[in-house]
């Protein structure tokens, strides 16, 4: 029996045509000319290429196919085929594939729907012109888009935890963070996405001008220069990635911290009273996004940063509460004696 039944050949042709167009877009937008203008983060690639993929898939789908297949299932399978191909041949990393997957699914469906509306009750010649227009549009508009600079957007990501320990104990655990194991952090989706886990934070000296070295797995290190030092109340620092220690293969180009698309600029810990023997610890960071689709990209970078901060705060909370409990126990024993 043949691997694919003959009646499904046309569906295979439809998906293959959409795949070839998407791969062509992937390589064209990664060229030096367009890469300098944003490359794979240009709107023409993120929006118009998947729309063209959807239109091409719908165009080659057999006329006997249902409307659901033409407008939904066909484009969905073609997008899936493209992204799996990108992963298998190491064209993109997992994080980038997951980030663009929802966007590609939606825009591919819109492209198929637009093609269907434009060509309904039209002859084959008109349909050919329409699908050709969809296929050419990303490449025609790309040089125009390349003339515009991607906007910078600055975002604040904040996490809070209440710790059953006094501020003096909490302060000791934030100025320096002893080594953290994977077990301390627990499982998280960001690990599966390939982001290095935090390892520890050292401090050159206390006070303004002190440098914290925040290290992560796989040689990732950030230099955090303290410019606000208010003991047991607030510590704030600028953040610069130590490019000398970070291997070039650790991050994908599009999510590199300190790169042209994304950066983390500042970090701040604030301690607030939360009742007798309790402290509210707030950690917030300031990040820069420089893409043509900042609202969408911000959903992902915001989630990743929030998850990293949340896990660090949980480690600090457990350590502080353990120290506070031991101190209370020692005090009780000393009182008895």
UniProtKB/TrEMBL annotation:
Q: What is this protein called?
A: Polyketide cyclase / dehydrase and lipid transport
The record's listing under InterPro entries reads:
START-like_dom_sf
Q: Which residues cross the membrane?
A: 40-60, 72-91, 97-116, 128-144
Taxonomy of origin reads: Bacteria, Pseudomonadati, Bacteroidota, Cytophagia, Cytophagales
Keywords (alphabetical) are: Membrane, Transmembrane, Transmembrane helix
Superkingdom as given in the UniProt entry: Bacteria
Glycoprotein recorded as keyword: no
